[in-house]
């Protein structure tokens, strides 16, 4: 990894959590931070790849981040808005899915309208770039032999569509980093005052730039970490996890976790210990 990209890992606005279950089973995921010229708006590039024996199918379940992704799957280029619910992708045979993860708030300058309009939706890239440019983008990526080549092509096309600067993106990023990294933040009011905004102003800012509320972002980041620690077997008891992640009420944590993941923390940890895929839908 070059120096520019190493530096970007220290400015993360999303974690590397979110894949449910035990990692490294049936598929591989690689991530590369965006180069310095794109890092103001783009968090990273990612590649999921697999090569399974005939007849074997493997589900990959994701609890989405508060980010828009540009995704290329089986030759189709798409824009995926923030997903509120977990979703499962089933791998079979050999294949790969490549994506560009924008920073929370980083897609609005490309879109030019509230990102909340994309929340929960997947649209063809042609809707934004036009059929010709979207087709060239997908075709150029299809010819790439590896992740380095995919990243180079993706960044070249993104720069060709690079938008004018928007200072509000950096402001959103500062708030998101606090929600992600600061354990003293347990409610939205903990950050709104810190950044000189009322809770309502922060809510409006996130609706326009992120597509979901700051409360949703905070909860999602905490649940990402809880699921990762339970899967790794490094969590201690789920009650300890709840307390460390800022939940004052264990029943509240269990309810949020179960709603998001589809299993109780105890059942999820047990499934991961047995290397079973913990969710199927």
UniProtKB/TrEMBL annotation:
Keywords in UniProt for this one?
Answer: DNA-binding, Transcription, Transcription regulation
Transmembrane domains' residue ranges: none
Matches recorded under SUPFAM superfamilies: Homeodomain-like
A Gene Ontology molecular function term for this protein is: DNA-binding transcription factor activity
Q: Which residues form the HTH araC/xylS-type domain?
A: 170-271
- Do you know which InterPro entries this protein is assigned to? AraC_XylS_family_regulators, DUF6597, Homeodomain-like_sf, HTH_AraC
A Pfam family of this chain:
DUF6597
Q: Which residues, by range, are in coiled-coil regions?
A: none
Protein name as catalogued: AraC family transcriptional regulator
Q: Which organism is it from?
A: Phytohabitans rumicis
């Amino acid at each position: 990894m070059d120096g520019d990209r190493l530096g970007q890992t220290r400015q993360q606005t999303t974690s590397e959590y979110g894949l449910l279950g035990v990692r490294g089973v049936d598929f591989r995921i690689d991530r590369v931070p965006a180069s310095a010229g794109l890092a103001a708006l783009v968090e990273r590039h990612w590649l999921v790849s697999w090569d399974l024996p005939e007849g074997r199918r493997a589900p990959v379940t994701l609890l989405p981040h508060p980010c828009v992704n540009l995704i290329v799957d089986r030759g189709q280029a798409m824009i995926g808005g923030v997903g509120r619910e977990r979703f499962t992708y089933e791998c079979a045979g050999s294949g790969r899915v490549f994506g560009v993860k924008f920073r929370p708030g980083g897609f609005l300058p490309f879109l030019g309208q509230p990102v909340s309009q994309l929340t929960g939706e997947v649209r063809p890239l042609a809707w934004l770039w036009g059929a010709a440019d979207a087709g060239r983008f997908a075709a150029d990526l299809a010819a790439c032999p590896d992740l380095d080549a995919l990243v180079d092509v993706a960044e070249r096309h993104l720069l060709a569509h690079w938008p004018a600067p928007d200072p509000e993106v950096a402001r959103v990023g500062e708030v998101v980093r606090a929600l992600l990294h600061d354990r003293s933040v347990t409610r939205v009011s903990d950050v709104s005052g810190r950044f000189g905004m009322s809770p309502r102003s922060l809510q409006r800012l996130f609706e326009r730039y992120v597509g979901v509320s700051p409360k949703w972002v905070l909860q999602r980041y905490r649940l990402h970490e809880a699921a990762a620690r339970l899967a790794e077997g490094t969590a201690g008891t789920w009650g300890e996890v709840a307390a460390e992640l800022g939940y004052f009420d264990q029943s509240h944590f269990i309810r949020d976790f179960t709603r998001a993941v589809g299993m109780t923390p105890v059942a999820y940890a047990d499934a991961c210990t047995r290397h079973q895929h913990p969710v199927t839908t």
